Amino acid sequence: MTLSSHLHSYIAKYLSLYIRPGDSLTEINPSDESLAVHFPEHRTEANVNELRGCKPTKYYLLNAGVHREKDIQKLLEKIHEAISADARLIITFYSALWRPLVKLATKLKLRAKLPEENWVTPDDLANLLCLTNFEPVRMDSKVLCPIYIPVLSGLVNRWLAPLPGFRIFNMVNLLIARPLLKTDPGMRPSVSVIVAARNESGNIDNILRRCPKMGPDDELIFVEGNSTDDTWQKICDATEKYKGPLKIITARQDGKGKGDAVRKGFSLATKDILMILDADLTVPPEDLPKFYNAIAKGKGEFINGSRLVYPMEKEAMRFFNILGNKFFATAFSFVLNQKFKDTLCGTKVLTRENYLRLAASRSYFGEFDPFGDFDLIFGAARLGLKIVEVPIRYRERTYGDTNIQRWKHGLILLQMLMFAARKIKFI
Question: pLDDT, tens digit, for every residue of 325-338?
């Protein structure tokens, strides 16, 4: 196996995390060593000057093209003119540390001779993307051993290359970016707010009273889940009396767990933006417009609440829960290559379109998440969505008891994290 074929097969394996079966792909200015051939179902190849006349695709691949381009900024500007707001640009480029060895491999005819002009750093490329109205979404490095050695190269590239201390020596950088396009300030999409309610009878009236109107035609969806108190009856009575601006939809959960209830609510939702509000009201409904503005104004595509920025009320979170949240935030930051402050806040927001794409590939990470948080975060990362955290002030629960069993649920969360790390980090 040649250096190039081994390298490209490994990079293609990593890219398949994002470019799923059925996703459309265009490789821009492909060389003789095209990566797109590894994605035969829906791929096209195009010169950058032809892009505007091509059928739009979800992903655009620039494989080592920045090395061959005399004017990278002009290249990125042309790409930006041609792609849509929901498309993703994937750029692969080599680490400058490997420049002497790449030249040696070319001389030894282990790879095709290509006209490398530039050896840019990740910071150089991030700056060029900023200048051309792109925003980096995820940056990663792969391939510590580009030469095929049976068993050994696979072990090194899968388990050692992602680790701190080793990754600085990786050969290949992979960057996913989204185009920043002007949003119409007059557009105000409507929202579906999903409330999973189990044993929350005393909070229903406050939810209806305090939940704000954000878009022109918002809806509030209650999903009651196997309560032992009168939560369902309270939802029915309060909904009948409600005279506010929101459309109210009610349903009873078929399965168990918050994740199942949220998925039921999402299946009933009809609006452009999907938003989760915990029924315990520890995240104030009055803070929901912050999440709405972040997604409606294009600041992010998956908006996650963070309870660990501002001081929280005295009894809002117990000590070991705080430690658990900090641990999972650190672990998520490592696995996803994006800084997370809080992964377990219940308030999460994304568009209905992106949720449907996420749900279509849910089986990739398994369907055993009883909470829904990990299911959504890992799914959003795999779609290459821009993830943004919105700080909120976390409040004490004023009615009822928590539905969280911290030790039992903590073990489930750890199992899910380890499983997902094998599917998204160590691949």
Answer: 788 888 888 998 88
